[in-house]
Amino acid sequence: MLSAAIAPLAFTAPMAPALQAVRGSAVSMVTKEALAEKLNPAIGYFDPIGLGTADFWSQGNAATYGFLRHSEIKHGRVAMAAFVGFCVQSNGIHFPFDLQGGGVAQAQYAAGLSPPEQWDALPFAAKAQIIAFVGFLEWWSEFGGVHYMRGGQPGKYPEFNNIPLHKMPNLFDPLGLSKGLTADQKETKLCAEINNGRLAMIGIFGFLAAEKIPGSVPLLSFIKPYAGEPMAPF
C-alpha cells in the first residue's frame, strides 16, 4: 500500500524566492564527472539533455546540481522501498493486526488483491494518515537542516534535534551503522545506493506497466492486471 501511495510524493520542488539569497552556494559533493565515472566506469559522464549545466529557478548551477542529486537519491530510495513492498504485498504478506479497528482484519484488504488494489481498498482515514506523515517528512527534509541546494549533503535526511518531546530516530542512519565507516567506505556505499535506486526505479515502473498494459513487460506476464488508475494519489 505504501508502495502505491508514496511514489508520487517523492518530488519536492523548492520555492525559488526562498532560495534567492543563497544563489551560488557551494554544494557538498564530488564533481558530477567524477561521480558518473565511479557509478558506471563503462559509460562515464553522459548528459545528453544538459542537466549538468542547467540553472533551475535562477539559483546557479551548483544549487541546481544539488537539487538533481538529492532528487535522484530520494527517488531511488522510494523506488527501492516500493519494489520490495510490491513483492511482499503481492505474496499476501501483511501486518497481523486489524487495519481500522472494530474487528476489521487487514486480511480483508490483502487477500487476493494486488498492491494498488490494496491501496484502493484502504479507508480514506488510512490514506490521509499515510499522506500526512509523508508530507511531514517532506517538509522536514526541506526545512529541518542545511538545505541540499545551500551547501548541505544531497540525500542526507536532517535529524530531529530541534523538535521537543519526540522519539523519532535519525532517519539517515537510525541504527548507527555508518559511524565506524571511513570516508571511502561511505562513498562506496553511497554509489551502491544510487545504482540500486536507479535499478529499482526501472523495476517498480516495470511492475506498474505490466499491470496496466498486459504483455508490455514479457517477463512479468504473470502479474495480475490492474483496472484502476495508478496516478490516482495525485
TrEMBL record:
It comes from Isochrysis galbana (Marine planktonic alga). The keyword Transferase does not apply. Chlorophyll a binds at residues 72, 75, 193, 196, 198. The keyword Plastid applies. One of its GO terms (molecular function) is chlorophyll binding. This is Chloroplast light harvesting protein isoform 7. Its main location: plastid. Keywords: Chlorophyll, Chloroplast, Chromophore, Photosynthesis, Plastid. GO terms for cellular component: chloroplast; membrane. GO terms for biological process: photosynthesis, light harvesting. It comes from the Eukaryota. The lineage of its organism: Eukaryota, Haptista, Haptophyta, Prymnesiophyceae, Isochrysidales. Chlorophyll b binds at residue 77. It is found in: Plastid, Chloroplast.
